[in-house]
Target: Staphylococcal nuclease (SNase-like), SNase-like, superfamily
Amino acid sequence: MEVLARKCQIRLRGLRAPKIGTEYGIEARDELAKMVDGKCLTIVVYNLDDEKRCVGDVYSIDNSLKDILLRKGDELPWRWEAD
Model:
């Protein structure tokens, strides 16, 4: 296992979310922050995107955060979309 000792913005692999500065961007970010606050997470990074964000999968226990967000999509005024 490799542990990164640096701060990195994470972009969930295979998920499109509202960007900050667009409609619902702040709300989407805050909803995600509430979901992971205080949880032990496993992050598997695959690469960096053009904006130098770590692109990867995030897991809480055995649950994929991406899958949770996609299931939760109908409850929220914005859409999390698989890409």
User: Anything to note?
Assistant: Strands lie at 10-12, 15-16, 41-48, 54-60, 63-64, 81-82.
